[in-house]
Amino acid sequence: EDQVTQSPEALRLQEGESSSLNCSYTVSGLRGLFWYRQDPGKGPEFLFTLYSAGEEKEKERLKATLTKKESFLHITAPKPEDSATYLCAVQAGSGGSNYKLTFGKGTLLTVNP
Amino acid sequence: SQTIHQWPATLVQPVGSPLSLECTVEGTSNPNLYWYRQAAGRGLQLLFYSVGIGQISSEVPQNLSASRPQDRQFILSSKKLLLSDSGFYLCAWMRGVGKLFFGSGTQLSVL
Predict the structure, then answer these.
(1) Are B44 and B38 a contacting pair, CB within 8 Å?
(2) What ranges make up the beta strands (E) of B2-105?
(3) pLDDT of B22-52, one tens digit each?
(4) Rounded Cα distance, B3 and B54, in Å
């Protein structure tokens, strides 16, 4: 069974204080690892797809990296508008599970001004 | 461009009452469609997914059911709601590999 564990559950940062969120996973044949952002009361919004170990993706203050066991979402000099829940998900590449994503419980990020 | 519509936004229902949540997608054909539920402390739980009209796969045994009567319509139903059915229900469609586009969600409270 595919599993995704995110840490920490919650993270408070001061504006400008860089940090990283962790996503560790076990999956039978990784087809892709995905990061989403979710604001309160809304559906998640897609951020990144990572396909293989060593791959990196960047968008504004966010950078996602991938190893064979985990992914990190690095946040550089965050601003209050980066406050949200960040979700990690994996999609298996084999069997009947290749249509679905398995999500972690997310990390609630709060950036104080 | 593609859009996904989900309604209602909020719903308060008594225990034992029926449920019907509807989701429609515009701007694409034959999408893979999904129903997720998000409960406090449990993350996003996949309930059902569909790869075509009339094709429904269930992930979690429970008193919910799903139907896909048309290519871009996905319905979540229950004959009798339980307290444990409370949560935030999200419809989504998938483009390419793992890129899910979510609706705005329905907050369901069963009292």
Answers:
(1) yes
(2) 3-7, 10-13, 19-26, 32-39, 43-52, 55-58, 64-70, 73-78, 87-95, 99-102
(3) 999 999 888 999 999 998 777 899 999 999 9
(4) 22
Q: Determine the Cα–Cα distance for residues B75 and A23; give it in Å rounded to an integer.
A: 32
Q: Which of B32, B98, B105 sits opposite A32 (nearest CB)?
A: B98
Q: Shortest CA distance to B93 belongs to which of B35, B44, B54, B47?
A: B35
pLDDT in tens, B73-108: 999 999 999 999 999 999 999 987 788 999 999 999
Tell me the count of A-B CB pairs closer than 8 A.
58
Q: Do B102 and A102 touch (CB under 8 A)?
A: no
Per-residue DSSP letters for B27-40? S-SS-EEEEEEEET
**Structure tokens given for A99:** 């249509």
Any CB–CB contact under 8 A between B97 and chain A?
yes
What the block records as the tokens of B97 is 């590999």
Please indicate whether, in this complex, the C-beta atoms of A99 and B59 are within 8 angstroms of each other. no
Cα distance between residue B91 and residue B74, in whole Å: 8
